[in-house]
């Protein structure tokens, strides 16, 4: 039987893991299998992003050239390097980055994301393969899925959202209304107020809080019109998947990894959520991920019940 090498296992693990994350529906993944890289593909979410990567394991003589080729790849939006955690690999990456800065070339678009693998990893050991796969799954979720594709959405952003006081579900309905506005996804507070049958003053107050969360941004100075941010769109997509899971959809194991990075929990880990008046308080600062998840689901339920909010079928593009 052919020996399973660490280099091949790690490279294949990246593409397999991204493919599994894509099955959630938050983005798409397509292998490109470019011969000049150990792994490569296209990540789709709104627009396609080319990902290229190298695996540094055996300390071959051509590793420096391979890393420089990755850094100079003009079409790459995301560059990933899996590296054996050795002094040699640290030095190689430092020198390659220094050479790039000294060259006077434009700043690297998207930067370089390095994932370190324990130097004593053996791909022939089943238990070690499982441990490294779990670690890579968490690293890729943090560095690529949350760090890039979901607009750097964070747990504190979500906590700010669930702390918004007032009528249950209104802030969710307003954010959804901005997302589903006209073709250019720009809408005025008065248009939202008319659609949701609430006062314009109330809408403006909620929009200010949504701006603080990073979910909405004014088109210009003031708030004549607003539009949703990438982070806001990502938040709605996470809410959609979370709500579907709570409604009985099959839980996606890799989605639970994303939720934990956002300091949330899956619907099955949260207790049954009562549809109660949504009044936030300072005590939320110390509430558990399960409680925050339950309040988020309650907010979504309220928006759906009062304003008929519906989640359109999601298609990663």
Structure in words:
The chain is 48% helix and 13% strand. It contains 11 helices and 8 strands. The protein has helices at residues 6-22, 63-72, 87-102, 126-149, 155-162, 170-179, 189-196, 200-213, 230-246, 253-261, 289-307; strands at 28-31, 39-45, 47-56, 78-84, 112-117, 186-187, 216-218, 226-228. Helix 7 packs across helix 8 (200-213).
Beta-strand portion reads: 5-15%
Tell me the number of helical segments per DSSP (H or I, 4 or more residues long): 11
Q: Work out the radius of gyration.
A: 22 Å
Structure summary, number of beta strands: 8
- Please outline the major beta sheet: 5 strands, mixed
User: Which word captures the global form?
Assistant: globular
User: Would you identify the regions where 5 or more consecutive residues have pLDDT less than 50?
Assistant: 273-282
Write a concise synopsis of the structure shown.
The protein has 317 residues and is an alpha/beta fold. It has helices spanning 6-22, 63-72, 87-102, 126-149, 155-162, 170-179, 189-196, 200-213, 230-246, 253-261, 289-307; strands at residues 28-31, 39-45, 47-56, 78-84, 112-117, 186-187, 216-218, 226-228.
Keywords summarizing the entry:
317 residues; alpha/beta; 5-stranded mixed sheet; 3-stranded antiparallel sheet; 8 strands; 48% helix
